[in-house]
UniProtKB/TrEMBL annotation:
This is UIT5 protein. The keyword Glycosyltransferase does not apply. It comes from the Bacteria. Coiled coil: none annotated. The chain crosses the membrane at residues 6-23, 35-58, 64-81, 102-120, 126-150, 188-206, 236-253, 265-282, 294-317, 405-426, 438-455. Keywords: Membrane, Transmembrane, Transmembrane helix. It comes from Romboutsia ilealis.
Length: 456
């Protein structure tokens, strides 16, 4: 396959985007300019190039729209549950079994994981942090330990896997040109390895420092846990949510619902739950409350994806989405810009699975340095497609590896400005939390990358 000017334009702007991210700058403008340059190449006119930018953004919005909608609905539902204190009912029984630092770390972490899978880590952070902080401290777990659990289980495990909402794998798979299910299924071993190694290392270091006195329990912060009266409405609300989502999961397996179908079922269920819960909270304010919560949810979703859409628009041009924008402009036998680049790379330089896995992790990690793991997933997916084509490797596993690296570093575990919410809610310094997370996450990434070398 002979590379054309479009291929070299694409390579140039991929490098520019990567350099921009390394410099901790936003990469939206380089991505827009990259689309513009491709528009000039294919359309040979200024108006055609400008029109290509809008068309590319429209393609990206069509791809990411369902993800934005499901996140908005889930955040809205969490607001309704906050309204009637239903979350307090969930935590009540759990607080009775939190007796020591170990149980406090893992129970708060698992609760954060479940909340993040269904309601997204950002809104879950405030809920879990506020509820578990007095419980954890009373059980002997320092505030920094709780902050670690929130980060590692929520912004680490939940965001890197994202099995329920499927926002992360949707972006990665879209850029890699494969199905969402392929990223999740082919990467399952890597998700498990990263989880076990990182959480195991983090807990070992936490326990070690508690025992040797390096890390002390903040007795001064200990306070009595406020006992709140939980209404019958709150109890019914939480059981409705639990039962409804369990039935959704059963339906997904029974009817083999995947990708958009699974997301649609989950989103529609959450929307109906939002209405029902607001009706139970106060029938008179249902119309206004439901609307207000939906607005807050969609504002949250748009705020996250406003930066991601133009970035994804550029990287989608590397796949057959290019044809959607520019028409049938690819040469016969072309596999898209990224596929062609991968084939050319395999013929030009010696490349193997060790190099592919290592570079994929580095690229994913670098893209996470901007503090938004999602903005780098398109590049991680595109890189996986290139490497997979070049050495005939498992693109799904490679994409999952890049997704893991981008998320664990940029999603809120390493970059100080990304983990500020968890640090703030627990009353610790963001930089201190980043330092505590650094070694566990790095060890996890190294081990996961080594495992990836054998399975791709």
């Amino acid at each position: 396959m002979v590379l054309t000017g479009a291929h070299y334009i694409y390579i140039l702007f991929m490098v520019v985007v990567l350099i921009t991210m390394i410099m901790k700058k936003e990469s939206v403008i380089p991505c827009i300019l990259g689309i513009f340059a491709l528009g000039l190449y294919y359309n040979k006119s200024l108006t055609g190039a400008l029109g290509a930018i809008f068309s590319a953004l429209n393609v990206a919005l069509n791809e990411l729209g369902p993800v934005i909608i499901i996140i908005g609905i889930m955040v809205a539902l969490s607001k309704a549950l906050e309204e009637n204190k239903a979350i307090d009912f969930m935590v009540g029984p759990i607080s009775k079994v939190v007796k020591n630092p170990t149980s406090a770390f893992f129970i708060s972490g698992i609760f954060m994981l479940l909340m993040s899978w269904f309601f997204w880590p950002s809104p879950a952070t405030a809920l879990v942090g506020a509820i578990f902080l007095p419980i954890a401290i009373k059980a002997g777990l320092p505030a920094i330990g709780l902050a670690m659990a929130i980060n590692l289980f929520g912004h680490g495990i939940a965001l890197s896997t994202d099995f329920i909402i499927q926002g992360a794998p949707s972006i990665t798979s879209g850029a890699a040109g494969i199905g969402v299910n392929e990223v999740m299924s082919e990467g399952i071993i890597l998700y498990i390895v990263m989880t076990v190694v990182t959480i195991g290392t983090a807990f070992y270091m936490l326990r070690r420092d508690l025992k040797n006195g390096t890390l002390k329990h903040e007795l001064s912060q200990t306070k009595e846990i406020e006992k709140k009266e939980v209404s019958l409405t709150a109890k019914i609300s939480i059981w409705l949510v639990i039962i409804a989502f369990i039935l959704d999961i059963i339906a997904m397996y029974k009817f083999d619902l995947k990708g958009g179908d699974a997301t649609g079922l989950l989103g529609a269920t959450a929307l109906m739950l939002l209405i029902i819960i607001n009706l139970m909270n106060n029938p008179k304010t249902t119309l206004d409350k439901s609307t207000q919560q939906l607005v807050e949810g969609f504002v949250f979703g748009i705020k996250i994806f406003a930066v991601i859409i133009p970035i994804a628009a550029f990287f989608y041009m590397g796949d057959m989405s290019l044809v959607t924008v520019f028409g049938d402009v690819l040469a016969e036998g072309s596999q898209g810009l990224l596929g062609d680049i991968g084939l050319a790379l395999s013929n030009a330089v010696p490349f193997n699975k060790v190099a592919a896995a290592s570079i994929e992790t580095v690229v994913g990690g670098i893209t996470g340095l901007d503090g938004s793991s999602f903005s780098g997933m398109s590049l991680a997916g595109s890189t996986a497609a290139v490497f997979g084509t070049a050495i005939d490797a498992n693109v799904g596993a490679l994409a999952a590896l890049g997704q893991i690296a981008a998320t664990w570093i940029g999603g809120g575990c390493i970059v100080p400005w990304a983990l500020a919410p968890a640090a703030a809610i627990c009353g610790v310094k963001p930089v201190e939390l980043a330092k505590r997370n650094f070694i566990p996450v790095m060890v996890g990434l190294v081990v996961t990358t080594i495992v990836a070398m054998f399975i791709i």
